[in-house]
Design brief:
- The protein has twelve helices and 15 strands.
- It is an alpha+beta fold.
- The chain has an eight-stranded antiparallel sheet with strand order 3-2-1-14-13-12-11-10, with helices on both faces. Strands 6-5-15 form a three-stranded mixed sheet. A two-stranded antiparallel sheet has the order 4-9.
- The longest helix has 17 residues, at about 5-20.
- It is globular, with a radius of gyration of 19 Å.
- The model has no long low-confidence stretch (mean pLDDT about 95).
């Protein structure tokens, strides 16, 4: 069991350390235990050049923390009878028919999209030269100047990595899922998410379009050298990743009314709003989902498959990672914990056994989402 005083002291010390080392520009951390605030602090700067302090009301680009929200909206539509998880995607998107590497048309089901077993990929996960980038496929964090239908047309023209259901690979599947939801309902994705998730939970500051520039955190990229500071993102901005390809960002997408809503990466929100979402799920799903749907979301949906992005000890549910083995993962949480993050520097986790829900939002990528900080904050939160 986490020792409250020790954990708070450890998190304070960690935040002081990473800011002093200039690994992060700013952060807003919110942790609940047993439904009550356990730790809440904003530190550093939301905009370094303007000397604008980070606050708990700062709005962040959630990037892939959008995915669990869209997954929950999907499960809510399934409960309402508008779709089933075993429906083929072609029921709603008749022209989305990518083929396997040997040229056979594959049957992708909604369940494959939710669990990232569809065989799709991301351009930023492909080594250069990326086939997706060459085809003009957007990863949902840039501004490609095309609509979602055209992006999916280009995506469908690329061969799948594998037969759907046979392996796991992180991908644009949730963007495809967004198009499925729109076809199933006749609504836009923002309308669906508002109706099924954010409005029932009172998440009034979470959506697909930023309206107050002065409240949105300015994004930064990792410092180029140990004695340097994080680099303020331009628009556009490219970031080469050590173990994969190049990520193409457009921070201005958050204000662009003409950019299609990306189901995999397009939302913005605050720490407090996202905590409402996590706590609703931790406590059983009301008023947005049944307990059965929450269990399906967070359980390991692919127990026989390796999750290459998360590493040993991790599985994946229907929109979130699932901790199979804490020892193998060298993770302090209990087995069955779940979470995810976003490439702009955000992450969250829920440990049902400990009664913990945590949101760690930073404005520095990649340090804030899969750098040392994302592991150190876990260790600090479980300090004894």
């Amino acid at each position: 069991m986490t020792n409250s005083a020790a954990a708070r002291s450890a998190i304070d010390a960690l935040l002081d350390h990473v800011l002093a080392e200039r690994r992060l520009v700013g952060a807003a951390i919110l942790i609940f235990r047993d439904g009550r605030p356990f730790y809440e602090k904003a530190m550093g700067l939301a905009d370094r050049e303007e000397n604008r302090p980070m606050t708990m009301d700062t709005v962040f680009r959630l990037a892939s923390m959008t995915k669990p929200i869209v997954s929950v909206a999907t499960l809510a539509l399934a409960e309402a009878g508008l779709l089933t998880l075993d429906d083929p995607v072609t029921r709603f998107l008749p022209d989305f028919r990518p083929k396997t590497p040997d040229g056979i048309e594959a049957e992708i089901r909604i369940r494959h999209l939710l669990s990232h077993t569809a065989g799709l990929s991301y351009g930023f996960l492909q080594p250069e030269p990326s086939a997706y980038v060459a085809a003009g496929i957007s990863d949902g964090i840039d501004r490609p100047g095309i609509d979602l239908a055209e992006n999916l047309r280009r995506l469908a023209g690329q061969p799948l990595r594998f037969v759907p259901g046979s392996s796991w690979h992180y991908s644009l599947a949730t963007d495809v899922l967004g198009a499925v939801l729109q076809a199933a309902t006749g609504q836009t994705l923002p309308e669906i998410v508002a109706d099924r998730v954010t409005r029932p939970l009172g998440m009034s500051e979470t959506g697909f379009l930023a309206t107050e520039e002065t409240r949105l955190a300015t994004p930064y990229a990792d410092r180029p050298a140990p004695d340097a500071k994080p680099v303020r993102m331009t628009d556009p901005f490219t970031l080469a990743q050590e173990e994969s390809g190049v990520a193409h960002f457009s921070p201005g997408r958050a204000y662009d009314e003409t950019a299609y809503p990306s189901g995999g990466a397009g939302m913005i929100g605050t720490a407090a709003n996202y905590m409402r979402f996590l706590e609703a799920l931790r406590l059983g799903g009301a008023p947005i989902l049944s307990q059965q749907s929450v269990a399906a979301l967070t359980a390991d949906a692919v127990p026989a498959l390796d999750i290459d992005l998360s590493g040993p000890g991790w599985g994946f549910g229907l929109g979130v990672s699932h901790l199979r083995n804490p020892v193998a993962a060298t993770a302090p949480m209990a087995a069955g914990s779940w979470g995810w993050g976003g490439v702009y520097g955000t992450s969250f986790w829920v440990d049902p056994e400990a009664g913990l829900s945590a949101v760690a939002l930073t404005n520095t990528t990649l340090e804030g989402c899969n750098g040392d900080f994302s592991r150190e904050i876990l260790g600090a939160a479980y300090a004894t």
